[in-house]
Structure formats: structure tokens, C-alpha cells
Write a structure and sequence with these properties.
Helices cover about 45% and strands about 15% of the residues. The chain has 27 helices and 22 strands. Helix 1 (about 15-25) packs across helix 2, helix 7 (about 195-215) runs antiparallel to helix 14 and helix 21 (about 640-650) runs antiparallel to helix 25. Helix 5 links the parallel strand 5 (about 115-120) and strand 6. Bound molecules: nicotinamide-adenine-dinucleotide.
Length: about 800
Amino acid sequence: MSRFNVRKVAVLGAGVMGAQIAAHLVNVKVPVVLFDLPAKEGPKNGIVTKAVEGLKKLKPSPLGIPEDAALIQHANYEEHSELLKDCDLIIEAIAERMDWKLDLYKKIAPFIAPHAIVASNTSGLSITKLSEVLPEEIKPRFCGIHFFNPPRYMYLVELIPTPTTRPEILDQLETFVTTAVGKGVVRAKDTPNFIANRVGIAGMLATIKEAENFGLTYDVVDDLTGKKMGRASSGTFRTADVVGLDTMAHVVKTLQDNLADDPFFPSYATPPVLAKLIEQGALGQKSGAGFYKKVGKDILRLDPAKADYVPAGGKADEIVARMLKKAAPERLKLLRESTNPQAQFLWAILRDSFHYVAVHLADIADSAREVDFAMRWGFGMQQGPFELWQAAGWKQVAEWVKADIDAGKALSKAPLPAWVFDGREGVHTAEGSWSAALNKYIPRSTLPVYARQHFPEAVLGSGATDPLKAGTQEFKNDEVRVWSLDGEVLIASITAKLHLISPTVTEGLLKAVEIAEAKYKGLVIWSPDDVFSAGANLEALMPVFMKSGAKGIAPEEKKLQDAMLRIRYAQVPVVSAIRGIALGGGCELSVYSARRVAAMESYMGLVEVGVGLIPGGGGLAYIARRAAEMASAANANADILKFLTDGFTNAAMAKVGTSAIESRKLGYLLWSDVIVPNKDELLFVAIQQAKAMFESGYRAPAKTLFPVAGRNAIATIKAQLVNMRDGGFISAHDFHISALIADVVCGGDVDAGSLVSEEYLMALERKHFCGLLEHPKSQERIMGMLQTGKPVRN
Ligand code: NAD
């Protein structure tokens, strides 16, 4: 396959989706020009300008940092169509109207570069019909590219070919969307609403109907169909409110308009409650009311019988919640056999989903894998419907579903397809996943881009290797596994809960450094799940504290600091592969590594202040050293305090980056570090980095003394802190902790420019850390956090 270079992308339509897609392209460093119609009044780029301004305020933020909005180029079709000629990919995301889209295609066709890929983000219009107005030479380069809202955070992108799309075009686009945009691609057939919305919205309609059948309220249904069921925490009705009831109705209408022959057609009728809410302008979150309404701090739910909002907060029955914790075979059996209406409701919606996907598999997807991935990545389910069915016992569940269809309890009379009963144990096997259209199991894509994913997400039953059992193991204790995939780079995986750093973790990491130095080119710290490390394990230190007080902690803390230095001065590069949170000790571990490779969704920060402590694993020594390095890079006589202010403030305010990009702005990632768009490529890139560093003649950094800002700088910082305390912005205890942080990052009671070592600063960290441990207000914060998981403000 020839390389598809994407130098620039044009996004057409600066609405909800277009603007956010443009923002995400900026996040992943792809140059982008955002088009919309010329404004009728004022500057012609007015619509785009307003949309880009809106991006900076949107929550959750579509941008890694708001100021990056400036990187989006603004354009309108009247003045700037020529700009399209420089774009290698054009993503159309204008309003969902076939006629408008067709008009636009005709208008822009003359400006499309001869090699460019053109793709529509339509939620459900026929891609083939959309392609029909395109000139013959563009048709082979046209397809669907269906992002999910919000595009930065939703992993799923469906790619939909038409009969005339050239296969290599789709391969090129899949490669780009996977590695450069960081998404999980599912190829879908050109059927109404494609896969995720087809199955997902049919599921929501079924849920609304069954909730009525069983007389359940929306809050109870959401509690049942959220986290407890392994689905998105917003459940069903709150999800609908967030998506927008008008948007949902739009997707429903696509089903109604296009699927008259579908055996489930009657179940696509718009639920009366939905129609009524839309009629009243209650479109969900964006209009302040939908199935729920927020009044002050209270959440109210709609009571359709009263046609009014009443207090929400209804929860699942305890007995049903307990059933949901059981393994799949027992769980489904209990739900089905229970007389509790909530349990019966849950069995009913699961039965409806199994029935629906089995009947539609042949039409909508290449295989069952596409359906399960689409539901996981597009609807936040931990398991897709086929996976759950298979896990619960294929044959038994098939019999139960059949019995309900025969008894007229299901949403449609359509029988389950014959393949369901051919003696199989499921649809996912090591050989591949079941294609009902082709009557065989088909393997995963072998597109070269997937070689960059050592452990791609896999469906249950596909026999995927567990990363924590893969490769060659060199060492293992209760909380760290040290292993290698290729015999060249060693990997340390922290397996402790939230990857909290305990003495056992430290021991494992030190062992890993030792083995890496002896036999490997480098060490990568990586774990297969969505967290790098939530920090030091305070609970693990409790027994020592109880026995010997803070005095007993000092030697433990020193061990942690020594481990950080051991990592920093290792003879081979240590690369931290960060994904999710890297807080406190986790952040320290990464800044003491030789390099960091971070997924876009990485949240780094020194947050110890929240538990009444200061960073005590070298975090403050790092801030002091970085300030000295930056000052010396700027000018031999530069004022260190200037370079210290940000680092000090970030630690004193426990700031956490809301993306890898912001974490870099806070100073926890460097410009020489790598930000990886796709979380599943993290390990691959980290290994490549470690190898490249080794092969380029890696030497550990020279161990030197460096200048600190000294006592005058401490006085300057303290003067500002006094103002904040006296102005009521920070508490007396915050003041105390911040002053101690200032003391460490400035090097204590010394002259400006005094040369110090990392060990000296770490000793200061220990002194203040242990002092705080004995402070009643800090103890209150620690206990509060350990007991409730929430910070105590005192
Ligand atoms: P939107 O209404 O927020 O934005 C549509 C944009 O299209 C507006 O900026 C408007 O100025 C522009 N536009 C309107 N008429 C036009 C015309 N005749 N020619 C050119 N531009 C025109 O819509 P949206 O929610 O961003 O949806 C855009 C596309 O993305 C639709 O096809 C929709 O189905 C799809 N989509 C939406 C979502 C979602 O959750 N909103 C999710 C996935 C896909």
C-alpha cells in the first residue's frame, strides 16, 4: 500500500460535530481548515469564528488546551474554496439533509485534489446515494466516516464504503484514522444508521418500551442500565438527554423512513413521551430539560403520568444489584427467573438485544466482532451483546430467547436465524468472528497499521493473549511483572490496584532496572489498563506510621526517592508509557524517567496538597532542577525564580493536566517526549523510543549540582501567599503547605544561586513531608481521602 500523506484536512460544517472534529485534528497535530457557509452579516467567516470560540468553552473540552483553537484555519465556501485543493482529506459534517449535502458536493467538486479522499460524517444517510452526484473520478475516493459525539473522547469511528469506493482508499483512511487520529475503526455496511446507532438506538427504544411494560421510573432504569450493567454510567435516559432528544428522534426517523421491511419495524415507532418532550422543546441537557430537569442543585425526573417533574434518585433494588455482580451465566439465569420486575425488565432488554443483533447481523456488519466493538466504543459498553451472550452460555441463552419469541414476549416475531442453533458455542473464536452473510468465521484485519498494536482490544472468546501473561517473564512479585516481548526491551507492568506505588512496587521497579541494565536495551514502564499510577500507596505505609510515627516513614520515603534517582541514572533508558492518570508518585515516576510516551488522554499532576502533604518522591526536586535548567538555557544570569513560578504554582495548587498536551504545559511532559494519539499504540511507540535511544548511544544524564533560587525567593513567594491567605483564597493550612513547597523548590535557607544536589533537595522534601504527616490538619485530609476518596478542605 502506498503511503497516504495527510498534509491538511478540510472539515466542512462548523456545527456540533464539524467543529469538534477539527479540534481533535488539532490535538493530534493534523493541520485543518474548517469551512461553513458565508455569514449573511458581518465578516464572511462569522459562523466558523463563532464555532471556534465556542470550542474553548465546551465541556468536556474538545481541545487539549483551549489556546490551540487558534490553529484551526477559518474558511467559507464563497471566498476560500481554492483552499480545498491543498487538502488530502475532506470530511463533510454539515446538517443531516441529503439535498443540502448533494448541493455542497456539486459546489466543491471542482476544487477537490485528484488524489484526495472525500468522506461524509452523516449519521445515517445512504453513503451510496450521497456518492451518486459526485463526478466519476471522485466516486472511488468517497466513503462514510462516522465519528461519535464527543469525537475527542469517543473511540469509535465507523468507515462505510460504497460499491464504488476503491478498497485501498478505505485502507488508507483506516490507517490514518487509527494511528494519526487515534480512533478505533469499525467497518460498517451502508445500511441505515450503520452499526452502533442502529443497534444502540433500537436498544434505547426497546428499553423505553420495556420500562413502561414493567412500570419502572427513569431514574431506576438509569441506575440499572448504567455502571451496574457494565454500560456507560449515564444509563439510558440521561444518555438520551446528553445526546439531545431531537438528535435521537432524527436517528429514529432514519429507521422509520428506511426500514419498512425490517421485522422490528413496529418497535421503531417514536415513543409518545419522546414526541411530547420534543414538541414542548424539552430536548435534553442543551435546553435544560428532557427526561430529567435540573432545578438549582436538585435533579428531577419526568413523571409521565403527572406530566410533571418529580424528585429523582430512585435506585436499583439491592437484590437486583447483587444479581448483576454474578458471572454472566448465573446473572442471566437469575434475572430471567426472578419475579422482581426490575430483574424481569433487565432480562427483557437483554433478550431484545440478543434477538435484534442475531436477526440483523447478516445485513449490517461483516461479522459479530464489528457489532461488539461498535457497541463498546460507540455506546460505552464493557461488553458487546454477542460477547455477553457467548459468555452467558450460547446454547442456553438461545433457547431462552427462542422461548420468549414463541411466547410472544419479544419485540418481533422474527425467529432467530438458523445459524444460531447449528451447535455452536458462540460467535467469537480464535479463528475469527462469525459472519452471518458469508457463513464463516473471519479473522481480524491484517492492515499493517495494526502491527503497531501489540495488545489490541479484543472480543471475549477470540483467544487474545493477556498482556500480563505474554512474552518472557523475568521477574514477578505481588504488584509488578517484569517481562519482555522481543528480548530487546524490558517491560515493567505495575499490577497493583490503581497502580499505587508501594514498597513492593518500588522493589519490582528496581529489580527491573537491574535486569534491564544487565541484558536489555531499555526499560519501558507500561501496564495494559487505563491508568499509569494514582500515586504513592499511603495505606501501605499506615502500619509503619502507626508503629513508629513519621520517623518510621522517613526511611521508606528515602527508598522511594532513591528509586527515582536509580531510574533517572540507569545505564539504559527508562521510558514511561503513560495513559490515564499519573498523579503524585505516578507523576514523579514519569518525570524521573529518561523519556515519556503519553497517550492523548493522560492526566498528570502533583496532587499531594489534596491530602495535606507535599510531593515527597522527588517531585519538588524535579521542579527545582527543571527551573535551573530552563534558566541556564535562557541565559547564564537568568533569575531562577522566574522559571520556578509555574512549577511551584502547579504543585501548590495540585493542578492536573486535562490532556497530555496540558500536562506538557504544566511541565510534566517535555517537548522531547512523545504524545501518541492511539492508546493501543502506546507500548509499541515506547519500545521504539527505548530502542532508538539505546541505539543512538544513550548515556544517563550527568549528575551535577545546580543553582537554586534561595531564601529571597522564598520570601517573595511567601509574601504572595500571605495575600492569598488574608484575602481568604487559601486556608491557613494551605498557606503552611505552600510555604513548605516554596522552601523545597527554592532550596531552603541558602543564598540565591547556591549549588545543591538532588539528594539535598530530597532531604528537604522528607523533612517537610514527615512534619506534615504529624500535623492534625494533614491527618484529617489523609483520613478523609482514605475513607471517602474525596479531598477534605480545611
Ligand atoms: P449542526 O446542526 O450542529 O451543524 C451543521 C452545520 O452545517 C452548521 O454549521 C451549518 O451552518 C451547516 N450547514 C447547514 N446547512 C448547510 C448547507 N446547506 N450547506 C453547507 N453547510 C450547511 O449538525 P451536527 O450535529 O454537527 O451534524 C453534522 C453531521 O454530523 C450530520 O450529518 C449529522 O448526522 C452527523 N453526526 C452528528 C452527531 C451528533 O451527535 N450531533 C454525531 C455523529 C454524526
